[in-house]
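How it folds:
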Amino acid sequence: MAWAVVGMFFGVWVAALLAWPDLTFDAAWASFGRIRPVHTSGVIFGFGGNALIATSLHVLQRTSRARLPTSSARGSCCSATICSCILAASGY
């Protein structure tokens, strides 16, 4: 959920840029075109990714009527999500 909060923060910043364009602080990385994709990816991965992973782990355990063998399976899913969020945000 931390990625969703980061994505929403960037969304508020982008909305403020539409009202006050001087909030870029004369930095190229703070422009609307650079921050909007970070907001979009953060919200999509933050909410959508977490919901899909949680749902798939829940459905897997309920339909198979068995617990996951180790907690490393959950940890590897979370680690992959964190890595994809960092790669998505750093690509802009």
